[in-house]
């Protein structure tokens, strides 16, 4: 189920890409009748108020909390993976991957104050596995695809015209070896990344899969290793210095 839910604590606005997240707000009158929406049972109760009132999901929550459905497949969401708030605005950027084996990923602008069916605006389309979303030390929005990390202005009239590629040619799912052999299934295509306090960029480049179907046999068991274990060769962290903005 491809859904976003809304969480609000005190005056601040927060949104998380998850199946269920809590809303610390009052509820509308209860109803025993329920309908199904994107696989969830919802009734006439709401989480929130005004233009931030969302259909309450009928799931158990901690006392004082409820979960409200902000967006779903009915809003043309396909495979949302990440979300980040635009600094200083009640707006959010959503990475919608599209699906495995697709190159139709999108970055969307979400306005939770807008009416249902009008909350999303397409910013960038035709992306291969968009996944990571981070606000950088320069307050710009950084995003990752299978082979690149770039930054852009999601509020610009033409967001694509503001794209600046920071890292390119990262190992993706399809690579060509030095001998010319082409591999269609190589490294894991999803790239997550973070900045440290000095502005350095750390990128997680994973192995082919995080689902090991055949367990590796233990050929040399050691109960008490004298040296710390080595990191597995199937994945790595890469550090890059992000270019500073001159604007």
Q: What is the topological layout?
A:
Blueprint: E1 4-9, E2 12-16, E3 22-23, E4 35-37, E5 40-47, E6 54-57, E7 66-71, E8 80-85, E9 92-96, E10 105-110, E11 120-127, E12 133-135, E13 141-144, E14 149-152, E15 164-167, E16 175-176, E17 182-183, E18 192-195, E19 200-205, E20 236-241
Antiparallel strand pairs: 1-2, 1-7, 3-7, 4-5, 5-6, 8-9, 9-10, 10-11, 12-13, 13-14, 14-15, 16-17, 18-19, 19-20
Describe this structure as you would to a colleague.
Residues 236-247 have a biased composition (Basic residues). It comes from Bradyrhizobium diazoefficiens. This is Glucose/Sorbosone dehydrogenase domain-containing protein. Residues 216-247 are annotated as: Disordered. With 247 residues, this protein is mainly beta. The chain has 2 domains: 1-74, no CATH class; 76-211 and 233-247, Neuraminidase (6 Propeller), CATH 2.120.10.30. 0% of the residues lie in helices and 38% in strands. The protein is built from no helices and 20 strands. It has strands at 4-9, 12-16, 22-23, 35-37, 40-47, 54-57, 66-71, 80-85, 92-96, 105-110, 120-127, 133-135, 141-144, 149-152, 164-167, 175-176, 182-183, 192-195, 200-205, 236-241. It has a 4-stranded antiparallel β-sheet with strand order 2-1-7-3, with no helix packed on it. Strands 8-9-10-11 form a 4-stranded antiparallel β-sheet, with no helix packed on it. It has a 4-stranded antiparallel β-sheet with strand order 12-13-14-15, with no helix packed on it. The two termini are 41 Å apart.
């Amino acid at each position: 189920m491809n859904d976003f839910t809304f969480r609000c604590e005190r005056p601040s606005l927060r949104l998380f890409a998850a199946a269920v997240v809590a809303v610390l707000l009052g509820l509308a009158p209860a109803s025993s009748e329920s309908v199904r929406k994107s696989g969830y049972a919802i009734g006439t109760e709401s989480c929130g108020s005004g233009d931030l009132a969302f259909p309450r999901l009928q799931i158990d929550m901690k006392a004082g909390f409820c979960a409200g459905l902000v967006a779903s497949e009915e809003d043309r969401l396909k495979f949302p993976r990440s979300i980040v708030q635009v600094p200083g605005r009640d707006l959010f950027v959503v990475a919608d991957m599209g699906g495995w084996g697709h190159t139709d990923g999108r970055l969307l602008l979400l306005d939770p104050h807008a009416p249902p069916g009008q909350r999303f605006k397409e910013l960038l389309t035709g992306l291969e596995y968009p996944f990571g979303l981070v606000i950088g030390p320069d307050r710009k929005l950084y995003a990752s695809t299978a082979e690149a990390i770039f930054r852009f202005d999601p509020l610009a009239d033409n967001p694509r015209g503001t794209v600046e590629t920071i890292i390119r040619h990262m190992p993706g799912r399809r690579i060509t070896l030095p001998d010319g052999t082409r591999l269609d299934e190589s490294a894991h295509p999803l790239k997550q990344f973070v900045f440290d306090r000095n502005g350095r960029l750390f990128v997680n480049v994973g192995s082919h899969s995080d689902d090991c179907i055949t367990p590796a046999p233990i050929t040399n068991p050691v109960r008490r290793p004298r040296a710390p274990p080595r990191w597995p060769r199937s994945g790595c962290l890469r550090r890059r210095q992000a270019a500073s903005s001159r604007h």
